[in-house]
Amino acid sequence: MNLRPINANLNDYPPSVRPYLEGAKIFxxxxxxxxxxxxxxxDEGFFIKTSPKESLFLEYTMxxxxxxxxxxxxxxxxxxxxxxxxxxxxxNGNDCINQKYLENPKKLCDTTAxxxxxxxxxxxxxxxxxxxxxxxxxxxxxxxxxxxxDKEMFEQLDLKNTADAWTLITAKSKLLKNxxxxxxxxxxxxxxxxxxxxxxxxxxxxxxxxDRHVDIFWGIYTLFYNLRTHQYAKRFIDAYGxxxxxxxxxxxxxxxxxxx
Length: 260
Ligand SMILES: Nc1ncnc2c1ncn2[C@@H]1O[C@H](COP(=O)(O)OP(=O)(O)O)[C@@H](O)[C@H]1O
Ligand SMILES: [Mg+2]
Known about the structure:
Blueprint: E1 4-6, E2 26-28, E3 36-40, E4 46-52, H1 57-68, E5 75-80, E6 83-89, E7 94-95, H2 99-102, H3 105-119, H4 132-145, H5 151-155, H6 162-172, E8 180-182, E9 191-194, E10 197-201, E11 208-210, H7 212-227, H8 233-240, H9 247-257
Antiparallel strand pairs: 1-2, 2-3, 3-4, 4-6, 5-6, 7-9, 8-11, 9-10
The structure holds adenosine-5'-diphosphate and magnesium ion.
């Protein structure tokens, strides 16, 4: 989390969100261009996410579900109007791109792999999203048909063109199961640790019951992305449990994520 002090205009926020900001110091905590995230230091601290209309409904639903499992912050407010706003309580600790975690990469790799294996062992009977695989494939299909593609991801795969990628996806997509509770965006900034112990997950709007290889792929990719080396991939798989990891499915997920 990179907190940068800013001045927030309360009138930009709906009336039910303003009490979380009034009289507080405000910081920008955004991590991606898709959403604006600010931190208010009032009381125990709040995070307020703003994103286009209806884009936060699933995050609201899944954060509530993860909170019921003790794995995510409480949602204090969700407003869908001209835009969407989500207010969550601050999770104690620091996300995994904090220097104290990045400077101990082996421990970070093992810790995030073990946490993921535990998440994937949870009883998902009450999860509101039971068909992550279908949603995941549909999103990819829409991007492919719209001609959208993540070039950086594409270049890491040995594929001639995007049509080739789509042929591989349609041939193999039946391999994917709805077998475990997924985080759905298992990246270091979305995992909050308190002195190396899981304190909570955030950004769970892409979660649901799906194929474990989605989270494993991102667990490996995020270590590569933040540490700029591929050297933790095998270690992550070993720490997760290599008996459960199928390299063919990991490659399939990498191919689908070209269109993610
Ligand atoms: N409830 C929370 N508790 C602690 N940190 C949070 C919370 N919500 C957001 N953050 C911090 O803000 C960052 C961005 O929030 P996030 O919801 O992941 O936005 P994005 O969708 O842009 O990745 C996170 O990486 C994390 O550091
Ligand atoms: Mg995030």
